[in-house]
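Task: encode each sequence below as C-alpha cells.

Item 1
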Amino acid sequence: MRVDYEDNVSKEGLLFNPYMLGFDCANNVDSEKYRCYVFLVGVIRELLEEFRINISSKGYIYIQDCVIAIFDQRSMNIRFKTDVYPYVASKYGIKDSATVEHNIRNAIVAAYKLNESDVYHNSAIMSSFGKRPTNKEFLLYVTNEVYRRLWNESVEFTRV
C-alpha cells in the first residue's frame, strides 16, 4: 500500500494534513490516502491503549495529534515548544500551547502511576522507561513505534 502526501507546509513549519479534517471518503478521489490516515490513527490508538493512556483525558487526543505531526515531519529532530505544541493548540483553538503540554504530561503521569500500582496488568513498555518519561521521550518513543509497526505491516507512507 502506498500513500503520497503533498507538501503543504504551514507557517509553523509543520505539514498541514488535510485528512485530519474529516471528509466523506466515498466521494473523494483521495480515499486511499484517507484510509491510510485512518490506519495510522488506528496504530497510534493501539499503542496508547498498550501504554494505558486514558482515552477520556484531553492529553490522549493531543498525544495522538503530536505523534501525527512528528510523523508528518519525517524527522525525530523536532522542537516541541515552538513547532508541535503550538500546532496542536491552534488546531483546537487553544491560546496557550502550555495547556497542550500540561495535558499531555498529566496523561503520561496518570498512565505511569496506573502501571506502577497495577501488578497484574503492568505495561512492560511503560515500565521499560524506568522513571516516568518526559513528554518528549514519550512522544518520540510512540512515533518510533508507529514507524516500526508500519514497517512490519509493509505500509509505505511517502511524500510526493
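Item 2
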Amino acid sequence: MRCMQFANFRLSRGLFLLSLCLFTATATRAQRSAAVPPITHETLQLAGLQKPAQILIDPWGVPHIYAQSENDVFFVQGYNAARDRLFQIDLWRRRGLGQLAAVLGPTFVEQDQASRLFLYRGDMQREWEAYGKSAQRIAGQFVAGINAYIDL
C-alpha cells in the first residue's frame, strides 16, 4: 500500500510540474508576443563588416542572420548578441575574471577570489589550436561585432 501511495505522489507531482511548465510556457509566449516591438528597418555602416548583411527579427522576436561570408555571420552574431544582451555579456566577463565585487559590492569578494583561482594561465596559442582551425578567427569576429555595437 505504501508503494502505491508513493507512486501516486510521484505521479501527482509530475503532473503538477508538467502543468506548471505548460502554464509558464503559455504565459511567457503570450507576454513575449505582446512585448515584441514592431519590426523596423535600420541600415548601419559598421567597420569590420565586409559585405552587406541582414538581421531579420520574426514576429516572436527571434533574430535570423543572413550574410555573404562566414566572417560576416559571426560578426553580425556578435553585434546582435551585444544589442540584446550586453549587460549579461559584461556580467559573465566580470564573473569569469573575478571582478563582480567592483560592481555588485563586497559580498562578492569571496566569489571573486575563487574565480581568480580558476583563471587560465596556460599557453593560449596551444589552447586555440586545440579548439579547431577556425576557432580563434570565429571568436575574433564575434568579439569584433560586440565591439562594433559598443562603438556606435
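Check on item 2: Helices lie at 2-35, 70-97, 101-104, 109-117, 124-131, 135-151. Strands lie at 54-57, 63-66.
End of task.
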